[in-house]
């Protein structure tokens, strides 16, 4: 029986701990009576705000946790994007798809740092730019990766991984459109629920990379000055896939 690579746990742990961190922020904000619980109805006369993720992480102590969660998620998310790029690099016939996907996720991760470090009450314009980058480019990344998954068909698992990813991409897109539509109609409680659903679907999507990562391992090769230089991407590509005689 073929062993699974420990790298498969990286996407799963990323999704789990990022989601857990955001829910910790939510419960802190609810406990401090900063936001209305998602299960309740929002009343304009109340002093509490709608339970948007940004509002939940807007004031300390929740804002401290929120910044840490978003910064860590952005860093690990970028690492996932790089590993996925290197995994697909030798097999994608249209490199611009792979490069574009990496750029989209990288910018989405940068947007996450803007969301986490510039709270809504401190710099609303920059915060909203970060939100647009995260949601918009994150959604683009999902669709591109879904297409690439079916096209490349790693280990003949293209359909097994691709179909759920297309469904999750559709769910992310639907939640994003619903979120902006409900925001425009000032239906804040429903918009907040759509936003939370959007983020959970997106994290679930990134967690599905465990399907392909379980077949691969990644190493950084350090060579002596006397040896010919070896680029990081070449190092990853050369050692990325398990060979049958190693199992």
TrEMBL record:
Keywords: Membrane, Transmembrane, Transmembrane helix
Domain spans labelled CWH43-like N-terminal: 6-215
Sequence intervals crossing the membrane: 7-29, 65-83, 95-115, 135-154, 166-182, 194-211
Mode of membrane association: Multi-pass membrane protein
One family name in Pfam for this protein: Frag1
Subcellular location: Endomembrane system
GO CC list: endomembrane system; plasma membrane
Keyword Cytoplasm attributed: no
InterPro entries noted in UniProt: CWH43_N, DRAM/TMEM150_Autophagy_Mod
Family membership noted in the UniProt record: Belongs to the DRAM/TMEM150 family.
Protein name: CWH43-like N-terminal domain-containing protein
């Amino acid at each position: 029986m073929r062993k699974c690579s420990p790298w498969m746990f990286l996407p799963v742990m990323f999704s789990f701990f990022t989601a857990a961190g955001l829910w910790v922020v939510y419960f802190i904000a609810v406990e401090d009576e900063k936001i209305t619980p998602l299960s309740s109805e929002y009343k304009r006369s109340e002093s509490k705000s709608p339970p948007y993720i940004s509002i939940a992480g807007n004031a300390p102590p929740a804002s401290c946790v929120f910044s840490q969660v978003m910064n860590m998620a952005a860093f690990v998310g970028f690492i996932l994007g790089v590993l996925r790029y290197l995994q697909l690099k030798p097999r994608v016939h249209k490199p611009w798809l792979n490069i574009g996907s990496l750029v989209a996720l990288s910018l989405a991760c940068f947007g996450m740092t803007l969301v986490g470090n510039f709270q809504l009450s401190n710099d609303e314009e920059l915060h909203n730019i970060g939100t647009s980058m995260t949601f918009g480019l994150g959604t683009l990344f999902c669709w591109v990766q879904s297409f690439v998954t079916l096209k490349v068909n790693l280990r003949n698992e293209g359909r097994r991984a691709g179909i759920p990813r297309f469904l999750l991409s559709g769910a992310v897109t639907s939640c994003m459109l619903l979120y902006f539509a409900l925001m425009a109609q000032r239906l804040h409680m429903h918009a907040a629920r759509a936003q939370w659903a959007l983020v959970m679907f997106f994290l679930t999507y990134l967690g599905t990379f465990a399907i392909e990562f379980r077949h691969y391992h990644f190493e950084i090769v350090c060579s002596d000055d006397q040896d010919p230089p070896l680029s990081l991407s070449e190092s990853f590509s050369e050692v990325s896939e398990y060979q049958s005689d190693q199992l």
